[in-house]
Here is the input.
Amino acid sequence: MPAQDVVLEVLDARMPRASENPVVSELRGRKPCVKVLSKSDLADPDVTRLWLEHFEALDAARAEGSGRVVAIAVTTERAAETRKRIAEVCGAIATPTRGRKTARAMIVGIPNVGKSTLVNTLAKRKIANVGDEPAVTKSEQVVLLENGMTLSDNPGIMWPKIEDPSGGLRLAFGGAIPDAALDYESVALFGAGLLLERYPALLAKRYKLTTLPADADALLDEIGRRRGCLRSGGKIDRHKAADVFIHDFRTGAIGRISLERP
Here is the structure.
């Protein structure tokens, strides 16, 4: 970290607060930081706009001498725009040191938040392995970009203890925690309750519901019936129903959804 000029902290646009590793803030100290809201094509655009305004307000109120903190939202669909925007922001807030003309940047973030996808986008080629599960990147690597910027890519790291239970459930629902460590049904029930409250119309459209179920349990059972997640005797297989629901959310099949607001 001391050798870097700017930190690119990748956050999940659907849950910027839950996916923000507090250890990163401690490590970077007063270094400038670009908060890159990845997967913004899966997030509620109105809520993403609120998050960008939130980070802009925090930057305006930063203490004297502190490094700039600028937030941008990116998608994999507009690669050229992403490269241009990050180059512009880094050029504006980072001062190259040790006689260099271009900045050294470090990409950090929690697992499965889109760091490797961003590296490949910036490099214009496949440098880092990507996948739909956490912990794909196993080691640090340094990449020299066409614009001269040196990029340090690192494995996703979680902090030692997640103090906020709801934040942990958001991370699990979004895919930042390995599925083997999850109680799928509990995570799905959390997500079902949240979406019933905030995005009922999207649920009704995705699962062809004329009437919304009364609660998360009923919603999960209804999804199980409509998707054929049944055991012998017609009993709902809650684990399979949970798997269908979580997969639909993570892939954006339900719609553009944000799990938290600033």
Remarks:
- Residues 45-60 form the longest helix (16 residues).
- The domain at 6-153 is CATH 3.40.50.300 (Rossmann fold).
